[in-house]
Each structure stands twice: as structure tokens, then as C-alpha cells.
Amino acid sequence: MRLVIFGPQGAGKGTQGARLQEKYAVPAIATGDIFRWAIATEGGELGAKVKEYVQAGRLVPNELTIQVVLERICADDCKDGFLLDGFPRNRAQAEALDEFLEERGIPLDAAVVIDVPEDVSLSRILGRRACLRCGRNYSVDSPPSNPWTCDVCGGQVVSRADDLDESAVRQRLELYHQQTKPLTAYYQERGVLRQIDGTGGPDEVFDRIVAAL
Ligand code: ADP
Ligand code: ZN
Questions:
Q1: 128 in a domain, yes or no?
Q2: Which residues are bridge partners to 85 per DSSP?
Q3: Among 12, 15, 54, 36, residue whose Cα is nearest residue 171
Q4: What CATH number should be reported for the domain holding residue 95?
């Protein structure tokens, strides 16, 4: 199964990505997690290149992002498929991915877009927390069992730095509407779009996605 999943910030991509990864036994690859991990690992070349963009809520340049993703999906664990969360984020990235997959004769099975209204999106961003080490998502409504220690890996669970900066949050939402949302039409034309209502609890949304796939 080869999937991409997109939607506004706070739509629940990360949460659903983790569940889909288990259900379909394909790795969930989140560009945001790759970049945050690179930044947290001091001394790395990728981290130094992407830091200023991520902190300001701007897009990392296409050339670099595309290179990172295409390299990642060439890894062994992606031979039976993958789930991309946060990529593509604009038309150039979508075209680069299509070209890569077409050359290999392995088309995308579906592009899942999760829709939520702006107020839901904003309140979820404010409430969400993530593990610094493994990226696992939590929120003030569903915290880890020990205060702010990851259930999976014992890492520290915190708000993301870019979620605390209100102007960076607004910038990311605006970029979503300008550049990523139009991918809905792009994937619709290619017959792979699956539009999902992202309101309600995580189980409800997950069931909708599985039914649509
Ligand atoms: P969110 O969806 O809440 O903005 P992500 O974790 O998906 O969070 O992304 C965090 C940051 O990483 C983005 O604001 C951007 O700087 C960078 N980023 C992630 N994916 C991409 C991408 N496909 N292209 C360019 N930049 C990206
Ligand atoms: Zn963790």
C-alpha cells in the first residue's frame, strides 16, 4: 500500500499515520519528524540546513525536501509500500513523487485528505504534545500514563517549539491553504483522492479512513 496523507495542521495526520502504519504494515514517514529529529541531533548537516525554515513555519526548499523523501522511500522497509505524512506539500513535490513512482511502475494507491474546520485545527495544535525522541503524539486530553514521559520510549513529551510560536502557526496554516489544499484537485484528477471528515475522536476518523481505502 502506497499512501500519502495531508490536511491542515491539527487534522490528526500523525495520529492516524501511526494507526495506518500498524494496520497496513508499512512505515509512516513524516517529513516534519525527520526534520525535527535532524535539528535535535546536533552537529548534523541536514539539521543545520532546515532549522531556520522549520522554526519560522516556512517550507523547507523543495529540492532538499524531495531528495530526503525519495532517498527514504528507497530504503528496504519501503519495498511493500509506505505512508507519507506531510509530503507532498505543494504541486512541485507531488509531481516529483509521481515521476519517481511512475518510473518504477509503482503508482500511488491513495491520497487521503483529512478535513477539519479552522477552529478545531487551532485548538488541537494548542493542545498537542509530542515525544522529543520518537515523535509519538499525545495531547492534553490524552496524555501519557506518567506525566509527560513517553509510553513508548520514555522520552520527554513536550509542545513542539513551532506550535508555541503563534506567528509560525499562522504561517503554516496559511501555507497549507495556499499550497497544499490545491493538491486535492491534483489527486482528484488522478482518481486517487479519498476525502475524510477529521472531526470527532481518533477511532471514528480511523474507521472512516479504512472504509474509504
Ligand atoms: P505541521 O503539519 O503541523 O506544520 P509538520 O511536522 O508536518 O507539522 O512539519 C513541520 C515543519 O517541517 C513545517 O512547518 C516545515 O517547515 C517542514 N516541512 C515538513 N514537511 C515539509 C515539506 N513536505 N516541504 C517543506 N517543508 C516541510
Ligand atoms: Zn517516545
A1: yes
A2: 5, 30
A3: 54
A4: 3.40.50.300
Instruction: Give the residue whose CA is nearest to atom 1 of ligand 1.
Output: 9
Q: 202 is written with which cell numbers?
A: 481518533
Identity of the amino acid at 83: L
Ligand 1 contact via 187 beta carbon (within 6 Å): no
Buried (b) or exposed (e) across 139-177, using 16+ Cβ within 10 A?
beeeebeeeeebeeeebebeebebbeeeebbebbbebbe
Active-site annotation holds for 133: no
128 has catalytic annotation: yes
Q: Which domain holds residue 162?
A: 2-207
212 lies in some domain: no
- Total of domains in the chain: 1
Q: Return per-residue pLDDT of the chain as tens, 213 residues.
A: 999 999 999 899 988 999 999 999 999 999 998 999 899 887 889 999 999 999 989 999 999 999 999 999 999 999 999 999 999 999 999 999 999 999 999 999 999 999 999 999 988 999 999 998 888 889 999 999 999 999 999 999 999 888 988 888 888 999 999 999 999 999 999 999 999 999 999 999 999 999 999
Which residue's alpha carbon is nearest to atom 12 within ligand 1?
32
Going through 102-182 in order, the beta strands assigned E by DSSP cover 110-115, 128-131, 137-139, 157-158
